[in-house]
Amino acid sequence: MKSRIASTTALMVTLVVCLTPPAASLPTRLKMTTTATMREETTPSTKAEGVIMNGTMARIGFSEEAWVYCRAQVPTDHHLHHYQVKWVTATGKMVSPWSRHNAGPQVYTLGGGPHIPHSYLVFDPFVPSHASHYSCILVFNGTPVHQSTIRVDQS
């Protein structure tokens, strides 16, 4: 079983509350101090995974525009900004993000950046050469930590 290591940073917060005194006295100030703990994750959660919401197989019609969706499933006590979702082909090649400069049938990704760990694998439009296995890789601070795979075929 892996242990979870986290560094801790203490943040001091000072609140100044002004109380309204009776008219005969001068204003009184009450100073309260509290300490909040901010955690910065240094290792991924052992429960984190990339989940392909379409299942493990998808059938897409010829020339249809379609997408497959993958999102990070991370315990609520972990900061999402450490995680990213990336798509790779069966040969291990990273699927590129959308570009307006690409012409013709293409496969590309939308999303997948930091702070929003989810991504769409888009077929625009689907052609027989796009049929393959694709993997959604969950990445923690640049290191792959989980992989889910889907088989995409022509219907």
Structure, explained:
- Keywords: Signal.
- This is Ig-like domain-containing protein.
- Residues 1-25 form the signal peptide.
- This protein has 155 residues and is mostly beta strands.
- It has strands at 6-19, 28-41, 49-52, 57-60, 66-73, 83-89, 106-111, 118-124, 132-140, 143-154.
- It has 2 domains: 6-41, no CATH class; 49-154, Immunoglobulins (Immunoglobulin-like), CATH 2.60.40.
- 0% of the residues lie in helices and 55% in strands.
- It has a 4-stranded antiparallel beta sheet, with no helix packed on it. Strands 4-10-9-6 form a 4-stranded mixed beta sheet, with no helix packed on it. It has a two-stranded antiparallel sheet with strand order 1-2.
- The two termini are 43 Å apart.
- The model is unreliable at 1-39 (pLDDT under 50).
CATH H level of the largest domain: which superfamily? Answer: Immunoglobulins
E-strand count: 10
Strand and helix order: EEEEEEEEEE
* Spatial sequence of strands, sheet with the most strands: 3-5-8-7
**Unreliable residue stretches:** 1-39
Number of domains: 2
Form type: elongated
Query: Class by helix and strand content?
Result: mainly beta
Q: Write down the CATH class of the largest domain.
A: Mainly Beta
Instruction: Give the radius of gyration.
Output: 24 Å
CATH architecture of the largest domain, by name, is Sandwich
Oligomer: single chain
Major beta sheet, specifics? 4 strands, antiparallel
Organism: Petrolisthes manimaculis
Keywords: Signal
Protein name: Ig-like domain-containing protein
In a nutshell, what does this entry contain?
The protein is 0% helix and 55% strand. The chain has 155 residues and is mainly β. The radius of gyration is 24 Å and the shape is elongated.
